[in-house]
Amino acid sequence: xxxxxxxxxxxxxxxxxxxxxxxxxxxxxxxxxxxxxxxxxxxxxxxxxxxxxxxxxxxxxxxxxxxxxxxxxxxxxxxxxxxxxxxxxxxxxxxxxxxxxxxxxxxxxxxxxxxxxxxxxxxxxxxxxxxxxxxxxxxxxxxxxxxxxxxxxxxxxxxxxxxxxxxxxxxxxxxxxxxxxxxxxxxxxxxxxxxxxxxxxxxxxxxxxxxxxxxxxxxxxxxxxxxxxxxxxxxxxxxxxxxxxxxxxxxxxxxxxxxxxxxxxxxxxxxxxxxxxxxxxxxxxxxxxxxxxxxxxxxxxxxxxxxxxxxxxxxxxxxxxxxxxxxxxxxxxxxxxx
Amino acid sequence: xxxxxxxxxxxxxxxxxxxxxxxxxxxxxxxxxxxxxxxxxxxxxxxxxxxxxxxxxxxxxxxxxxxxxxxxxxxxxxxxxxxxxxxxxxxxxxxxxxxxxxxxxxxxxxxxxxxxxxxxxxxxxxxxxxxxxxxxxxxxxxxxxxxxxxxxxxxxxxxxxxxxxxxxxxxxxxxxxxxxxxxxxxxxxxxxxxxxxxxxxxxxxxxxxxxxxxxxxxxxxxxxxxxxxxxxxxxxxxxxxxxxxxxxxxxxxxxxxxxxxxxxxxxxxxxxxxxxxxxxxxxxxxxxxxxxxxxxxxxx
Lengths: 338, 300
What we know:
The structure holds two protein chains of two kinds.
Chain A: H1 3-11, H2 17-35, H3 43-59, H4 65-87, H5 92-111, H6 116-119, E1 131-133, E2 138-143, E3 155-156, E4 163-164, H7 165-189, H8 192-202, H9 204-209, H10 214-239, H11 249-262, H12 269-293, H13 301-322
Antiparallel strand pairs in A: 1-2, 3-4
Helix pairs in contact in A: 1-12, 2-7, 2-10, 2-11, 2-12, 3-4, 3-5, 3-10, 4-10, 7-10, 8-10, 11-12, 11-13, 12-13
Chain B: E1 17-18, E2 26-27, E3 30-41, E4 44-55, E5 59-63, H1 70-77, E6 85-90, E7 93-94, H2 100-105, E8 108-110, H3 123-130, H4 139-142, H5 149-165, H6 181-193, E9 199-203, H7 211-226, E10 230-234, H8 238-244, E11 247-252, E12 255-260, H9 262-265, H10 269-276, H11 284-288
Parallel strand pairs in B: 5-10, 5-11, 8-9, 9-10
Antiparallel strand pairs in B: 1-2, 3-4, 3-6, 6-7, 11-12
Helix pairs in contact in B: 3-6
């Protein structure tokens, strides 16, 4: 069993773009659920819009990468408005039902072959990070994220973070987006605006009786959280191809696990939660097959890799029951039972 | 005039009405007027107020048996619920179709029968939430602390002053969930005052409050009047109503059945029947005239 190899591969996930994507989307969920009390069960839909908006912006509309990123963000704002207008006046649980259904609608819409020219159907979209579209569909000036990399070619860093210039560029761009986002959310939730949405989380009527437009605040929170979800999707799209098979409901639940792990009503919780989640997930995903190969587990290595998802489910249950506030949270401020 | 005759009995406002005292009597200076306000829940008519006026700069008590529609009437007046028909206005401005938050911003603030202190916020944050002057509550301004920091400090001074008056200043950094039931009532009232209201509507401010705290709550309510505010409150404690109310409105089965000076109104047979209870065995409908009871044997 290659213990060092497993640990090294695991450690690389600390700076992985996927981890950053989770942290961004988790930050969005923290605003939704942790601070405003909105049960969004469809974060995968927001991420899909961010990722596909970016890819379609490049491949269909021929936009440069930085403008295409805004297509995804604007798409998520519109999605949030469409979700929010009918549901935010209703009780919180309805939003959960509507968001989970809406995220599935988005995914199936992207999967159907009716729009294959735009969405790529089951194959998804690829080649949008290079210059000028794909080989079969060259668009001069479109995309070009990879070419905007100012870092000279070569390998940088040290093990386990020894990577080429593109990976480092991604990490730097992702790190900047994440840092700005965390700072913005920190400012938001520690402001009078944050005070109002924390009040709404607990009792809408009380806040309404004090002269606050509760509906507008909830809508603002839904939109802002949705934008962070789209940024998470964008981060995934910058690092790899987009495929509707990624934006499934279980992605939403992984995000929830990461969020609750770190602490739902905290700013740094989603960040740390995502890192722990991905590191653990990667570690177990490597450990179990290795144990299986060594004959220590009663199933084959492919089966063994799936065991981690069972453990994630168990972890989520234990977390909610025994430490609902997460690692960073204040138990007095956030518990599931009042 | 006061039957309890204590030396510290509050100064009552008199001469609030115009003409003969009857349900729906006109007031000299009404702050709130409701006309033909009706609210039905399916087949049940919860509120059916033909006409009522709330006098300005006075303390008005709204009393009546459980299920009389007092809280529903509160909800209708403050925009938390919408009547099926009727008009109602505050300071001469119609409130029809005005959402609850805007009603609050107009200066008509209410508290709740089941206290709505925000337990997961600190006492100070609860208070600050009451201010309607904070620009930092706008999304774009909120990320730039220099736009709202100064105002927040002013609000904190105002909040601390109110908390001191309500003897909650020592608790300002505690989560409101750690307060006792009575303290939460105080906090809710103090928070409502942060909005600098003209009319304060208190829904059962004394429910579940011990006698010592009741006394201080009473003083607070009397102080509101001294400061020029108008108070409308729902209460079941008749001693309290007699003690501080300048005017009493009695509701039963959704209707206003009597109005008047607290001592006079409690001698009113309709009030005794509907609420204070000399004929507990008589159907309320008979008292309000909604139904006619068949002749009983004892009446022959």
